[in-house]
Design a protein that fits this description.
This protein is an alpha/beta fold and 195 residues long. The protein has one domain: Rossmann fold (3-Layer(aba) Sandwich). 28% of the residues lie in helices and 24% in strands. The protein contains six helices and seven strands, in the order H-H-E-H-E-H-E-E-H-E-H-E-E. The chain has a seven-stranded mixed β-sheet with strand order 3-2-1-4-5-7-6, sandwiched between helices. Bound molecules: S-adenosylmethionine (SAM). The site of S-adenosylmethionine (SAM) has 20 residues, from strand 2. The site of S-adenosylmethionine has 20 residues, from strand 2.
């Protein structure tokens, strides 16, 4: 199975989107709510239906880049973002080929777990390249054993520390306390700061 553009586009077209919460995940919403600087440059990779993008845009954040490999969710998002949002900032591309930034903040939500696990070292490196020094990668990572079954693919706190520590200061990596009920106990909220 190749987790490529065709795969993801088909999952959206078939409405086979069990990951889609229909809303911003509460831990991410709480994180966004305490951000005070509204002019920071934010990337939402593998954003899907982009609930964080709408939430951020409605809260007054303007420098948003929304990236996905599949056109379907980006088309939908165009209709749901404020009219002032430039469609140039809705980018249909493969994250690993994406050249932009530097970003102050990247927000991760069920993108990492959707990638083939062998791409994880490249993910950590690419995030490092996209952020400015001191910039933050934040979001949620699943906390259940990594097996060949997926997506979503799991992992553990120890694995994530090992993967990201070469490029990032691990500021927070802990069990989320405000996950939605089906994900309670299986999400780690994290803030990694680029070295
Ligand atoms: C599990 S979904 C998560 C979507 C959204 N973040 C959410 O939580 O609802 C994974 C998303 O990553 C996108 N994706 C997968 N591989 C990608 C890649 N290499 N580059 C960019 N987007 C990718 C898929 O199209 C899909 O929208």
């Amino acid at each position: 199975m190749r987790l490529n553009k065709t795969y993801w586009q088909h999952r959206y077209e078939a409405r086979n989107t069990g990951w889609d919460m229909g809303m911003v995940s509460p831990p991410l919403g709480a994180y966004i709510d305490q951000l005070t600087e509204k002019n920071i440059n934010i990337l939402l990779p593998g954003a899907g239906m982009g609930y964080e993008a709408v939430y951020l845009a409605e809260a007054g954040f303007e420098a948003l880049t929304v990236l996905d490999i599949a056109p379907y969710p980006l088309e939908s998002l165009k209709e749901r973002l404020p009219a002032s949002f430039s469609s140039e900032n809705l980018v249909e591309a493969d994250f690993f080929d994406f050249e932009a930034g530097p970003f102050d903040l990247v927000l991760e939500h069920t993108f990492f777990c959707a990638l083939p696990p062998q791409l994880r070292p490249q993910y950590a490196l690419k995030m490092n390249e996209l952020l400015r020094p001191g910039g933050k990668l934040s979001g949620l990572l699943f906390d259940f054993p990594l097996t060949s079954e997926g997506p979503p693919f799991g992992g553990s706190k120890e694995e994530y520390e090992q993967l990201f520590a070469p490029y990032f200061h691990i500021r927070v990596l802990e069990r989320a306390t405000n996950s939605i009920p089906p994900r309670q106990g299986s999400e780690l909220f994290f803030i990694f700061e680029k070295k």
